[in-house]
Specification:
CATH class of the largest domain in chain A: Mainly Alpha
Number of domains of chain A: 2
CATH topology of the largest domain in chain A: Rna Polymerase Sigma Factor, Chain: A
Number of strands of chain B: 9
Largest interface: A-B, 44 and 42 residues
CATH class of the largest domain in chain B: Mainly Beta
Strand content of chain B: 25-35%
Distance between the termini of chain B: 44 Å
Oligomer: heterodimer
Low-confidence stretches of chain B: none
Number of helices of chain B: 4
Structural class of chain B: alpha+beta
Largest sheet of chain A: 2 strands, antiparallel
Mean pLDDT of chain A: 85
Order of helices and strands of chain A: HHHHEHHHHE
Radius of gyration of chain B: 21 Å
Number of strands of chain A: 2
Number of domains of chain B: 2
Mean pLDDT of chain B: 92
Distance between the termini of chain A: 24 Å
Strand content of chain A: under 5%
Strand order of the largest sheet of chain A: 1-2
Largest sheet of chain B: 5 strands, mixed
Structural class of chain A: mainly alpha
Shape of chain B: elongated
Low-confidence stretches of chain A: 180-184
Chain lengths: 184, 180
């Protein structure tokens, strides 16, 4: 089962052209969701994250085929370094990512749907939070306010805001799981 | 798929809230890129954070409403007086149908509680014990398309609390017709 094969062995098979096609697909399946998350966190949009997945996977596959991955067991470091470089280019708008033929790499095949939260269940569960917790979550993730600013608004300390935030998100998660509000 | 040094929930939440020092972000990026189980947990926090980002609360302030309008949401507003029973149609061309629940003296209110229930059964759908309000305008209900899954015969109770201990309440009955 290729799912249980170590990253380094996948890289070796690609470089040595031994079952390379299957190994490449597994490498993409493994890293595409992580690259996408990196893109969402650092570039802030689904479109940029999708572009990042495309650009990084292509670069990683090309490097692997060419035997340019030096640390076979740490291909993740190479992937992250490539993510950082491509993300920097996207942010600086210095260069657009190299356009690719659709047939060359079908990224969608490797990116599972992110967990989708049912809006009705979310409203129900947000309503179950106390007012301050709800405010902290909305200010954190909607207004993108920092802990110090939220602390001023909610008249508490920044440390307490951080505690309120992770507890409220955990409560929200439990409520959504209980309500069957999360769909994959 | 397990991790010998899993990233804590607190750190993942802080990571997605943009509340970690750059060096800690780098450290987490490195761990998440190499760890399938922590990455899967991070994806769950990401999903919650992005759902909250798009969340519109059922009771909104005027400022929130204007922010949503600038984001391009198509908003239609209508007004209701205490005791009024008035059906509304949620047209397909509208993203947000805002009910202005007015006609109450909220000038001395320190807190307003909004309860949404089902007219036919009395079941409570939603409660906001500390809802945003405007002493002139009243309370703004942001009715959203996904509310179509809820019973359509809704009753809104607005209860105002004053520092003196006085309470006043008003009820607005608004049956909804969600057009596809």
């Amino acid at each position: 089962m290729i799912e249980g094969v170590a990253d380094g062995e996948l890289v070796r098979r690609i470089t040595q052209r031994e079952g390379a096609r299957e190994a490449e697909a597994e490498l993409c399946r493994r890293f595409a969701p992580r690259i996408r998350l990196y893109g969402l966190r650092h570039l802030g949009s689904e479109d940029h994250a999708a572009d990042l997945v495309q650009g990084v996977l292509l670069a990683v596959l090309e490097a692997t085929r060419a035997g340019r991955i030096e640390e076979l067991d740490h291909v993740d470091r190479f992937v992250l370094g490539t993510c950082r470089n491509v993300a920097l280019r996207v942010r600086q708008k210095e260069a657009r990512m190299k356009p690719v033929e659709e047939s060359e790499l079908d990224v969608a095949e490797f990116v599972p749907n992110l967990e989708r939260v049912d809006l009705g269940a979310l409203g129900h569960c947000m309503g179950k939070l106390d007012a301050r917790s709800r405010t902290v979550l909305v200010l954190s993730f909607q207004a993108e306010s920092g802990a110090d600013e939220i602390a001023r608004v909610t008249e508490t300390s920044a440390g307490n805001v951080r505690v309120l935030r992770h507890r409220a998100l955990a409560q929200l998660r439990r409520c959504l799981e209980g309500a069957g509000g999360a769909e994959t | 798929m397990s991790c010998s040094r899993p990233v804590s929930w607190e750190d993942l939440v802080a990571y997605w809230a943009g509340d970690l020092a750059p060096a800690d972000v780098d450290r987490l990026d490195e761990h998440l890129m190499g760890c399938a189980s922590c990455s899967a947990e991070s994806a769950r926090v990401c999903a919650l954070a992005s759902a909250i980002r798009g969340f519109v609360p059922p009771v909104v302030s005027r400022a929130t409403l204007e922010t949503l309008r600038t984001r391009g949401l198509r908003i239609e507003e209508n007004s209701f007086a205490p005791g009024q029973r008035q059906p509304v149609v949620f047209a397909p061309t509208v993203d947000l149908l805002v009910h202005r629940l007015g006609g109450m003296d909220l000038s001395n209110a320190t807190r307003v509680k909004v309860t949404v229930s089902v007219e036919s059964t009395g079941a409570v759908l939603f409660e906001d014990p500390d809802a945003p309000f405007d002493s002139q305008e009243g309370v703004l209900i942001a009715c959203q398309r996904h509310f179509a899954t809820l019973p359509p015969d809704t009753v809104f109770e607005v209860r105002a609390f004053e520092a003196s201990g006085a309470e006043r309440a008003a009820v607005y009955t608004i049956p909804h017709d969600f057009r596809a």
